[in-house]
């Protein structure tokens, strides 16, 4: 599995935050911050939009670094992704991601 698949199975290379970071795209940072602030009802600013991938060393968004329950769980269990967890099929923590993103489950099982 490639390093830029998140703990949840989402492909970090397709994430606007990752794209804005690797391309140093301030317009995309601003657009993403605005959207995420609205979706999460939180004060997310463009300077918060920096991430090199949730399973690699380097920058992470505040959400991914400190608030993502999926990432916290995987780190606590010592699994490289949720795909390595025996509870994957019944897990409520990652369940919403997998329901809304069938490709995430494929990434985890792939």
Please explain how this structure is put together.
- By secondary structure, this protein is mainly α.
- The protein has one domain (12-109).
- Helix content is 50%, strand content 0%.
- The protein has 6 helices and no strands.
- Helix 1 runs antiparallel to helix 2 (26-40).
- The model has no long low-confidence stretch (mean pLDDT 92).
Summary of the model, kept short:
With 110 residues, the protein is mainly α. It is built from 6 helices and no strands.
Q: Helical segment tally?
A: 6
Radius of gyration using CA atoms only:
14 Å
**Which percent range describes the beta-strand content?**
under 5%
- Name the helix and strand elements from N-terminus to C-terminus, one letter apiece: HHHHHH
Outline type: globular
End-to-end separation: 7 Å
Instruction: Report the biggest beta sheet as strand number plus sense, adding barrel if it closes.
Output: none
Helix content: 40-55%
Mean pLDDT, to the nearest integer, reads 92
